TrEMBL record:
Lineage: Bacteria, Bacillati, Actinomycetota, Actinomycetes, Actinomycetales
Protein's gene: nadE
Single GO MF descriptor: NAD+ synthase activity
Catalytic residues as annotated in Swiss-Prot or TrEMBL: 52, 121, 177
Name of the protein: Glutamine-dependent NAD(+) synthetase
EC number: 6.3.5.1
Species for this entry: Ancrocorticia populi
Superkingdom of the organism of origin: Bacteria
Length: 675
């Protein structure tokens, strides 16, 4: 098995094809279809899907009932069947076929010399521009066998699910155009019966606004059915007697658009993308209501085939976001930031109101997290129509606090108009270290974890006792990424607070939230200027003093780049993917700085790339810390869930024993090929 093959990694490639059609010329259409299928074969495609009535054209009216045409359709199917013997993709084409007394509007499924089955359309539109009942019978409820000359008897019905025996999770159902426009489409029942890929071959004429309607249906179907939905509609060549055609094709997975065609295009359009079958399986296994809905559902026949896909590296045809928590699309990012910020502000206002409007006590370091918590608090006070002076902000410099961050804290508090005080924690820390007999007290440069935690602990101690004295609550600042990595001091430390606004915010989103707060003018202009200066400062815990001339203690040098750690966190929490697969995605997202997109406005000099070796090493550190630090999460203070990727609250999205071994996850890292 080749590690870099999409098929080893639980993905499958689909092609939604629209070809210029030759109306009423089945053999011509078959020839073009074979050519397109051969191209799909070269591209490593598993499913090549063509529009409704693609062998005849959709818009040929009463010619659909002509014997000579229906006979040539059978010849065209034979051409496809023969050609398919040497091709990998399953070929799905549209054709009118005789069955008993009537003609049916069918999807013919062909693979490696077999006609695997024929799925007739269930819902036959006969309204406005559609006159299909004049020609076609409905296939709803049919569970039969269809005799195809030269082929024999093949399963015929809307009850067919096609399943690859050699590709886990690859099973599909085909429905035909109008089938998806009804309240309960056949594909919904097929999904409940196990189909992960729902194909729709369509002959949908274009009118103004219809493309958006189709897309809404496809997106909704893929979300509701926890499936991939592959849609392809007729285009160029269809008769324009009374209608026009745009050849829209699109692929959605779980509500996310993976690919779409150019509409009104000239020439063949092959919309190719890779569907993640693991993600679909994972989603269905954790959302139990999906299966609950299957009670009493229809019975389906399963048709098994062996795909034998290419197992070498054929690239990856889907965009993998570098920052799964930060959309590259500016409008989406703005929307996410608006929601995230308001989720946090809501969380805090509700808690304050519910417990009699205490003051807020917060330690402000000048770093990103406490800055953001402070501007959430300030907004909450504004909404509650309380003075911002009810926020009691403290700067608590220790042995390594830089003037720059301290200044930022001063300026921020000043511009926001919150109450502000400095308490030097060094005397208390020195006393504690001396009482403990720590070597630092006798002048040795021993900057161990005790030295760090004495400072973090004393800050917490001060804040909690100040909260007692001032009738306040301590506002927590730790973020989701730090919780994942256990990058906080337990109990008597920054892990603890009375309420935390940040535990649902990943570090990679934090800076964008602050940028959004500046750009959307949540506060006065001078607040924006200080916020910008804070954004420009490197992330550091500032617990260990830097030697002269040396760089300050860098968090990311110790626990890895947050951009990689957040990537792993997202796929682990949201989809439960195995580490070696997350690394496969991480490599595609991060190995070349020039590929793919960065979020809008992402500074050019901060754009990084990583080798597979770096990805693997940082992932190992992530996993070690992730499992070892569950105890810090299982006693987490209250705070709101923010991103869909999950939270780490033991009362919410993440439950795990605090004494568990992550050895199985670490062992899986051995499956990574460094390339
Ligand atoms: N499963 C488990 N159940 C119960 N207790 C467990 C445990 N695993 C370890 N422990 C105990 O927990 C203690 C270790 O935890 P803890 O005291 O927190 O200490 P620890 O995790 O070793 O250190 C905290 C780290 O976080 C960093 N930090 C702190 C504060 C802020 C920031 C920041 O940049 O934001 C970073 C700091 O630089 C340091 O490296 C040990 O006493 C250990 O025995
Ligand atoms: N010098 C300081 N003055 C006041 N509070 C501090 C100071 N240093 C740390 N804290 C408090 O402890 C929390 C964790 O500190 P630390 O700076 O180590 O982590 P951080 O997650 O990088 O947070 P931030 O981004 O706010 O600095 C801070 O958010 C802040 O509330
Ligand atoms: N061919 C069809 O079934 C088309 C009907 C469908 N409502 C559409 O406009 O897309």
């Amino acid at each position: 098995m080749e590690y870099y093959s999409i098929y080893s990694q639980g993905l499958a490639r689909v092609a939604a094809c629209t070809l210029p059609v030759h109306p009423a010329q089945p053999l011509e259409n078959a020839r073009d279809t074979v050519q397109a299928a051969a191209q799909c074969h070269d591209d490593g495609v598993a499913l090549a899907v063509f529009p409704e009535l693609s062998l005849t054209g959709y818009n040929i009216d009463d010619l659909l009932l002509q014997d000579v045409l229906l006979d040539e359709v059978l010849e065209a199917i034979e051409v496809l069947r023969e050609a398919s013997t040497t091709l990998t993709p399953v070929i799905v084409v549209g054709a009118p076929l005789r069955y008993r007394n009537r003609i049916y509007n069918c999807a013919v499924v062909i693979h490696k010399g077999r006609v695997l089955g024929v799925a007739p359309k269930s819902y036959i539109p006969n309204y406005r521009e559609f006159y299909e009942k004049r020609h076609f019978a409905s296939g709803a409820g049919t569970r039969g066998e269809l005799e195809i000359p030269g082929v024999g008897s093949v399963p015929f019905g809307a009850d067919l699910i096609f399943e690859a025996a050699d590709v886990r999770g690859l099973s599909f159902h085909v429905e035909i155009c109008e089938d998806m426009w009804v309240p309960v489409p056949p594909s919904a029942e097929a999904a409940l019966a196990g189909a992960t890929m729902l194909l729709n071959i369509s002959g949908s004429p274009i009118t103004v606004g219809r493309a958006a309607d189709r897309e809404a249906l496809v997106k909704a179907a893929s979300t509701r059915c926890a499936a991939a939905y592959v849609y392809t509609a007729a285009g160029q060549g269809e008769s324009s007697t009374d209608l026009s055609w745009d050849g829209q094709a699109m692929v959605y997975e779980l509500g996310n658009k993976l690919a779409e065609s150019e509409r009104f295009a000239q020439g063949p359009q092959l919309t190719i993308t890779d569907i993640d079958l693991d993600i679909l399986r994972q989603e269905r296994s954790r959302q139990g209501t999906f299966d609950d809905n299957a009670l009493g559902g229809g019975a389906f026949r399963t048709i098994s085939f062996r795909l034998e896909p290419p197992m070498e590296d054929i690239g990856l045809r889907r965009e993998v976001a570098r920052f799964p928590f930060v959309p590259a699309n500016e409008a989406l990012l703005n929307q996410d930031c608006y929601e995230a910020y308001n989720i946090q502000v809501y969380g805090l206002t509700q808690r304050l109101r519910a417990i009699g409007n205490p003051k807020i006590v917060i330690g402000v370091s000048g770093g990103l997290d406490s800055t953001h918590a402070l501007i959430v608090a300030a907004r909450a006070m504004d909404l509650l129509e309380r003075p911002r002076t009810d926020i009691l902000a403290y700067t608590l410099p220790g042995f390594a606090t830089s003037d720059h961050t301290k200044n930022n804290a001063y300026r921020l508090a000043g511009s926001l108009g919150v109450s502000f005080k400095e308490i030097d924690i060094r005397p208390a820390a020195s006393q504690m270290l001396a009482d403990m007999g720590h070597p630092f007290a006798s002048g040795e440069e021993v900057y161990d974890v005790t030295f760090e935690n004495v400072q973090a602990g004393l800050r917490t101690d001060f804040l909690f006792r100040l909260a007692n004295e001032k009738s306040g609550i301590v506002l927590g600042t730790g973020d989701l990424s730090e919780l994942a990595l256990g990058w906080c001091t337990f109990g008597v430390g920054d892990q603890m607070s009375h309420y935390n606004v940040n535990p649902g915010v990943p570090k990679t989103l934090m800076q964008h939230l602050i940028r959004w707060v500046i750009a959307s003018h949540q506060f006065e202009n001078q607040v924006g200027e200080v916020l910008q200066s804070i954004l420009d400062t490197e992330i550091s815990p500032e617990l260990v003093p830097a030697k002269d001339g040396a760089n300050i203690q860098s968090t990311q040098q110790k626990i890895g780049p947050y951009e990689l750690q957040d990537f792993t966190l997202y796929y682990l929490l949201r989809f439960g993917l195995r580490p070696s697969k997350i690394a496969f995605y991480a490599w595609h997202a991060w190995h070349d700085v020039n590929l793919g997109r960065f979020p809008a406005g992402f500074p050019t000099d901060e754009r990084n790339e990583y080798t597979m070796e770096e990805i693997k090493n940082w992932m190992e550190l992530f996993l070690r810390r992730f499992f070892a630090n569950q105890f810090k999460r299982s006693t987490l203070p209250n705070g709101p869930k923010v991103v869909a990727g999950g939270t780490l609250s033991p009362r919410g999205d993440w439950r795990m024993p605090s004494d568990i071994s992550g050895s199985v996850w670490l062992k899986d890292l051995e499956n990574i090929e460094l390339g």
